[in-house]
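Ticket reopened. Same input as before:
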Amino acid sequence: EDQVTQSPEALRLQEGESSSLNCSYTVSGLRGLFWYRQDPGKGPEFLFTLYSAGEEKEKERLKATLTKKESFLHITAPKPEDSATYLCAVQARSSASKIIFGSGTRLSIRP
Amino acid sequence: DTAVSQTPKYLVTQMGNDKSIKCEQNLGHDTMYWYKQDSKKFLKIMFSYNNKELIINETVPNRFSPKSPDKAHLNLHINSLELGDSAVYFCASSQETIANYGYTFGSGTRLTVV
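Engineering reply: fixed in the latest deploy. New output:
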């Protein structure tokens, strides 16, 4: 069964303190891995898609990387406005019409 | 503005009632979805429609019935509401090939059954 596990469940950082969020996945043939950001009371907002091991994507202070079993979302010198829940999701080749989400990492950046 | 819009944003109702949630997208996407987000923040797919045709129907009680009058609209009707139906329901849309751009989500409908 396709599955996505994210860790840690919650992470509190000081402003400027870099760290990484982990997404481990089990899928029968990965078509794509997605990262989303979700702010309280809002829907998830798309950040990145990664397709194959070794691929990296960057956006401002965020960089997503992918291996055959996991993905990392690296956040460099975060700011308070980066506080949100970050969701990882996978799309399998066998069921391309749906994506499966992890439960997210709640990131809190203290000024 | 181009977006996925859901109404209502909040819905409080008693057990046993029937309620509907509406969703509209003006992005020209072919596929629309309903997801349920529980208290632990897991987003689980319920239904997916492509050009008004049902393509995904996960293990969801048959009290939940989606309806797609056209490819820009996907409504969710829930009969005989139960306490366990309390959650946030998200509508989303995508181009048929979603791997490039992911989904565009609405802002959610928080359903509370009392």
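The radius of gyration of chain B is 13 Å. Chain B has a mean pLDDT of 91. Please confirm and we'll close it.
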